[in-house]
Write a sequence for this structure.
């Protein structure tokens, strides 16, 4: 398959893939039981080892990479559950991004509307926060003017895809105002200041989960942090990097590094596992540009998930579930793959939940396994995403929990979708950990 510049996909793969990482794989198969797509299919080509073998075979010229090759790469969730399981420390996340980057320059297989949406979303919307606010305004109007009711009645979204129709049902409230417009750029700590944190507001978080962002600031100030929100920050670039748009991802990373460096913060806090995982790897993303080495390392070292910074550095919060009468509220936690596998930060979330008085915390079986959201995966690969979600819901239902808490907006929406599909909205809610904790904070207490 050739692109306009005349090079083949095989040649581009040779150029982009890290051959040393490919050869580091010793084919032991320890990663197989951790891989959701292998667990669903039992097919070697749908496993990390299988995908690495395919990449190597393509680079070595043993196999011509065609549509099947692209499919196997695109079926990967990018959840990176294979990395902690790997005794050889193979950087699978980097390999799959390099493979997708190569494929993206050659791909012809997306349906026309997917190509159109990708271009619009990646290049014209996500990098521009003012346009994201228009999106937030549009979403808010869609819900408030009755347009949503008309769309649902006519089934218009279902004409494009039944998956989009399902996702439409769990759309969050939109907001035309982001956190800076609502709270300003510098919010003082309550009591004695422990440190200054820069808040990463997130492009989608800021217009679709604006209240969660505001509650993040309140939790941080209550725990003793001054919060700075640099206005010039932009989208983290995660969706771009995972979808083969690496040049755009690098540009977004550089803008963010400049914004937070200029703000002179001690930490950079994210409340979305998907964003945090790329922020913490900006040094790797820019590793081929020596002039960015010092600043990208400065940035990556400071990134913390909200739960991690609250547990590690904040004044302890007194958390009580005052709303619940009678038996304690049963709560479970669904890991964000990127928070768990890349940021290594799932334990603080559990610690915080378990510290809430009058709560019955129950661990879900396979809580660390992907829910099928994975960025745009549940839109581009609906069949596999739904299959994975079904298994996730079996485990969620078995807990009997009233709340499924998550640390990432994509997981939150996916769990809402699962609850909606299972007709359980009256018994179970999916909530972001920040919203859950904020509603239960009494006050901070001195250490
Ligand atoms: S990133 Fe996730 S889906 Fe992809 S190969 Fe690794 S474990 Fe499997
Ligand atoms: S665990 Fe690591 S070395 Fe073993 S097959 Fe998987 S990727 Fe290769």
């Amino acid at each position: 398959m050739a692109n306009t510049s005349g090079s083949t996909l095989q040649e581009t793969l040779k150029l982009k893939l890290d051959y040393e990482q490919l050869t580091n794989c010793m084919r032991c198969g320890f990663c197989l039981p951790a891989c959701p797509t292998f667990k669903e299919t039992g097919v070697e080509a749908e496993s990390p080892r299988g995908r690495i073998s395919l990449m190597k075979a393509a680079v070595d010229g043993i196999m011509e990479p065609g549509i099947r090759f692209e499919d196997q790469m695109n079926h990967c969730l990018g959840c990176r559950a294979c990395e902690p399981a790997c005794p050889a420390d193979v950087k699978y996340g980097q390999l799959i991004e390099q493979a997708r980057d190569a494929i993206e320059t050659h791909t012809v297989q997306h349906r026309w509307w997917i190509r159109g949406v990708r271009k619009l979303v990646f290049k014209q919307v996500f990098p521009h926060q003012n346009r994201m606010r228009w999106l937030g305004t549009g979403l808010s109007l869609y819900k408030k003017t009755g347009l949503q009711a008309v769309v649902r009645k006519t089934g218009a979204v279902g004409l494009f895809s039944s998956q989009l129709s399902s996702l439409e049902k769990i759309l969050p409230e939109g907001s035309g105002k982001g956190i800076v417009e609502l709270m300003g750029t510098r919010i003082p700590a309550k009591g004695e200041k422990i440190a200054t944190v820069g808040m990463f507001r997130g492009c989608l978080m800021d217009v679709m989960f604006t209240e969660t962002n505001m509650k993040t600031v309140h939790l941080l100030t209550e725990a003793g942090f001054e919060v700075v929100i640099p206005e010039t920050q932009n989208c983290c670039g995660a969706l771009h990097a995972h979808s083969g748009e690496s040049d755009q991802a690098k540009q977004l990373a550089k803008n963010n590094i400049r914004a937070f460096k200029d703000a002179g913060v001690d930490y950079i806090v994210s409340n979305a596992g998907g964003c945090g995982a790329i922020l913490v790897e900006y040094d790797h993303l820019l590793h081929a540009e020596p002039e960015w080495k010092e600043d990208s390392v400065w940035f990556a070292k400071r990134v913390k998930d909200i739960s991690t910074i609250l547990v590690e550095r904040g004044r302890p919060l007194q958390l009580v579930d005052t709303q619940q009468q009678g038996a304690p509220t049963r709560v479970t936690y669904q890991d964000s793959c990127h928070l768990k596998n890349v940021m290594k930060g799932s334990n603080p979330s559990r610690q915080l939940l378990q510290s809430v008085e009058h709560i019955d915390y129950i661990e879900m079986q396979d809580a660390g396994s992907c829910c099928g959201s994975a960025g745009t995966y549940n839109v581009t690969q609906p069949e596999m995403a739904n299959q994975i979600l079904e298994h996730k819901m079996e485990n969620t239902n078995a807990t009997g929990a009233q709340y499924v808490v998550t640390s990432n907006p994509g997981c939150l929406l996916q769990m809402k979708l699962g609850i909606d599909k299972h007709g359980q909205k009256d018994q179970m809610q999916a909530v972001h950990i920040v919203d859950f904790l904020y509603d239960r904070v009494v006050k901070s207490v001195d250490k």
